[in-house]
Amino acid sequence: MTYFLENIPAASFGLLVAAILVGCASEEKVDVACNEYFSKIASSDFTDLGNGLIKDSVTQLYWYRCPLGQSFENGRCAGEVLDSDFETVRGTVKNFRLAAVSSTKTTGNWRLPTQREYEKLTSVPCHSPGIDVTAFPNIDTETFYWSSEDSERDSFACGTHIGENRAICKISKKASNPSLIVSEDPGISQPLAKNG
Question: Residue 44's closest CA among 55, 30, 31?
């Protein structure tokens, strides 16, 4: 028993060193706002194609940089965000066409993003909002953004809260929310002239 009592300080010191080493080896996200993070680090996933259009080099998807309803002018999103019910937003997306773009089609096959596509956008090592703010300059962090998935119940739809990096499928379709839009083929002739 005496041997055990005499060696408690040595055993405690060993446990302390082990705990410190384990803590140093774990990878945690840096606690930094995305405005600060992306002011120092350029986005490597997005290519600016001009006229408010960016292309994700990983997914090969085209994103409009502003929430639906706004236009991209002089490097900023301008105008009113379409903050509306699910069916109105979905109908508006189908008729979306980039202004002042040489297009091969009357519309550009735009759609609401899927939950997984929003998840890709929000998988950044920063917060408030949890998205690349150089690619998407006007994100409201206090609301959900509509996604293309329907809920299991007819009166509900899915959405992603970009400010909190979380998704749910229990949003009433009658609620008013904004949306980003995405396309696999926006029907454009590249390269576009830079507008902004």
Answer: 55
User: 156 to each of 86, 88, 172, how far by Cα in Å?
Assistant: 9, 14, 4
11, two tokens: 């055993």
pTM for this model (two decimals): 0.77
Tally: H helices and E strands in the chain: 5, 9
Cα 68 to Cα 60: distance, rounded to the nearest angstrom: 20
pLDDT band per the 50, 70, 90 thresholds, residue 31: confident
What DSSP string describes 65-83?
Answer: SS-TT-EEETTEEES----
147 in Cβ contact with 155 (< 8 Å): no
pLDDT (tens digit, 9 = 90+) per residue, 132-146? 888 999 988 889 999
Dihedral angle, C-alpha 124, 130, 131, 134, nearest 10 ° = -100
Reported as a single tens digit per residue, the pLDDT across 107-127 is 568 999 999 999 888 888 888
For the chain, what is the domain count? 1
Give a yes or no: residue 196 inside a domain.
no
For the domain that residue 120 is a member of, what is the CATH number?
A: 3.10.100
Q: Is residue 152 part of a domain?
A: yes
